[in-house]
Amino acid sequence: MPKSQCLRFLVLGLLLSATSVCPAPVTFNFTFDDPNSTAQAVGSITFEDTLLANPGVNDFFLPDPAVLALNVTVSGSAAGNGTFTMADFVEVVFDTDGATLDLGSQLVGQVTPDSSIWGTPDGNSGDFNLFSFAPKSRPERYNQQGNAPTGSNAPNGVFYFTLGANGGNDEPMELIGMAPTGGPITPPATLPIGREAMLLLASMLGLVAAFAIRRRKRRA
Asked: Is 6:189 a contact under the CB 8 Å cutoff?
């Protein structure tokens, strides 16, 4: 194989490897709603897709590099209305119930391997929840009550796929929708490679250029 062709393949390989490790943030809009009142929690969460186990049980204690952003606005509640950010929460749970969820479409309603429907608040269909104060062990976390230790009235997980207003003390709001923003997920168009990889790429391109010039001189 000609040397110039070998160098081209090396450059192409470097570019492909760089794209395979690119950060891939994915943002989901979600809505929790209490069917028995006007209480509702609407917000968004941004995960680092490369750090999100799918399938898997993700239990993120904040701050965590897997959770890049979190915003929730509670309205219609007797108490606990307001807008809350990642600073108001200590834990995020995202459990796929063994399913490889299609992160590019509506998550609520997807079928899991045991024929459950993801998003069903029955304790057997996965989970997505936010916690505003330090939880106990997983089996006991939904038996605890009380406001966040900071005095915040941020909502808190009270059951699977169920967020309670006012630190979990008021209206239980169930997850009714969770979908990515902007439609299907696509890889980034740029190539955010590191400094070392960039220097190596520049050196390889220089070798290709030098080899091409040398061949032209020989032909002249």
From this structure: no
Give domain limits for the chain: 24-180
What six digits make up the tokens of 147? 């406001």
Instruction: Concatenate the DSSP letters of all residues of 59-128 into one string.
Output: EEESS-TTEEEEEEEEES-SS--EEEEGGG-SEEEEE-TT----TTS--TTPBPTTS-BTT-SSSSS-EE
Whole-number mean pLDDT of the chain? 81
How many other CB atoms are found less than 10 A from the CB of residue 206?
10
Task: Please answer whether residues 129 and 162 qualify as being in contact, where contact means their C-beta atoms are separated by less than 8 angstroms.
Answer: yes
The answer to whether 164 and 171 are in contact (CB under 8 A) is yes
In this structure, are residues 162 and 121 in contact, taking their beta carbons and an 8 Å threshold?
yes
- At 169 the pLDDT is 92
- Alpha-carbon gap, residue 153 to 167, rounded angstroms: 5
Identify the top-confidence range among 27-31, 129-133, 140-144, 184-188: 27-31
Q: What is the largest CA-CA distance in the chain?
A: 86
Q: What is the pLDDT of residues 57-83, one digit of tens each?
A: 999 999 999 999 999 999 999 999 999
Torsion angle, CA of 117/123/124/129, rounded to 10 degrees?
60
CA torsion, points 60, 79, 84, 75, in degrees to nearest 10?
A: 110
Residue 76 near residue 39, CB atoms below 8 Å? yes
User: Which one, of 59, 62, 50, lies nearest residue 24 by Cα?
Assistant: 50
